[in-house]
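Incident review: delayed structure delivery

Summary: a single-chain prediction request sat in the queue longer than the usual turnaround. Root cause was a stuck worker, restarted by the on-call engineer. No data loss occurred. The affected request and its eventual output are reproduced below so the record is complete for anyone auditing the incident later.

Affected input:
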Amino acid sequence: MSEHVHGYHRENLAADRVGVSPLWVTCRPLPGGILMTVSGELDASNAGDLAAYIQREHRRPELPLVLELAGVSFMDSSGLYVLIEQNHRADSHGTKLHLAAPHERVVRVLEITGALQVLNTYDTLDEAMAAADLIDPHAVPR
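Output delivered after worker restart:
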């Protein structure tokens, strides 16, 4: 299931398939990069779907990608693999993958695997957006 709202693209990657954990992604193209907000459970049943979605929506891999992970309540090694592969993809194109506000369970997986030392991870979305030099034109000024 896919929907377009105010220039954003939101998709249910599980699409009510039996045996696939729920996972939603909202894609927001921004001047100079992409912001994707991921929510649900990222595991072996849908990690490949997320990887394919990122490849499809992030058509200019030379631009930075921010993945907001605050809504990801569970992540297994398959999800970790997607993050590491996307990080390699960004590096190979001279840019960075930025992980924003990961849920504490995701942070724990990153910590115990050592990936926290390798991936660009930020406590807040604002920090990740600033590191990626992205500005959300729809954001309300503070």
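Verification: The CA atoms of residues 23 and 32 lie 26 Å apart.
Action items: add queue-age alerting; document worker restart procedure.
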